[in-house]
Design a protein that fits this description.
CATH topology: Rossmann fold
Radius of gyration: 18 Å
Number of strands: 8
CATH class: Alpha Beta
Strand content: 15-25%
Shape: globular
Distance between the termini: 56 Å
Structural class: alpha/beta
CATH architecture: 3-Layer(aba) Sandwich
């Protein structure tokens, strides 16, 4: 009962406030939005595993995005020729790969043009989730190692803090985070500790 009351109070304080992504995506998406493409003309983009919202965050539109989803398309066997895309995105996909992560990374770079950009987001300190299988966890250093032979790393980082899982008992992890800095949920969503990364990501340019 106390948990429900606390959650209701927190939600009430967000009424009328401008909001962004939910708790465990808020910081990551705001950080990645810094790499938004200013001029997307002529770019061809591959979205792997329901990653279209991440493509759109970077500035791409429907007519530029080829949206693929598992099980019809697997990141381990992408049905496109070499050097087909300017950008390849996977958002929270790598942890669910039923195979070797290096093979998934290799395949994503195979279909990427020289000078093209791969963006992969995944997780580290995250409970086991999804019925499709949950097999892997990644540090930023691990992601950098996987792409090392293919690419120049633009950004490899993460977000998280030890307090998030205390607050998730309130059931607020999927509620949109208010942009207002004074709000406690905003504080929780933006506090970052390198020892407690929940989500990790990498942006890399194919050599």
């Amino acid at each position: 009962m106390r948990i429900n009351i606390t959650r209701a109070i927190l939600k009430a304080t967000t009424l009328g406030l401008s909001k962004g992504a939910h708790l465990t995506r808020y910081y990551m998406y705001r950080h990645l939005s810094r790499f938004r493409v200013k001029n997307t003309d002529g770019f061809k983009v591959l979205s792997i595993g329901k990653s279209k919202p991440l493509c759109e965050l970077f500035g791409f539109t429907d007519n530029q995005i080829i949206d693929t989803n598992y099980p019809e398309v697997s990141i381990l066997n992408i049905p496109y020729p070499d050097n087909s895309f300017d950008y390849v995105f996977s958002d929270q996909v790598l942890e669910h790969v039923e195979g070797f992560p290096q093979e998934a990374i290799d395949e994503s770079f195979r279909v990427l043009k020289q000078g093209g950009i791969c963006v992969h987001t995944t997780c580290l300190l995250m409970p086991i989730h999804q019925s499709t299988g949950d097999y892997w966890r990644f540090t930023p250093q691990g992601l950098a190692l996987l792409v090392k032979r293919h690419a120049r790393i633009i950004d490899a980082d993460g977000w998280g803090n030890r307090y998030v899982w205390i607050f998730t008992k309130l059931g607020i992890q999927f509620d949109p985070v208010p942009h207002s800095r004074w709000h406690p949920i905003h504080w929780l969503a933006t506090k970052n500790s390198t020892r407690w990364f929940i989500h990790t990501w990498i942006i890399a340019e194919k050599k």
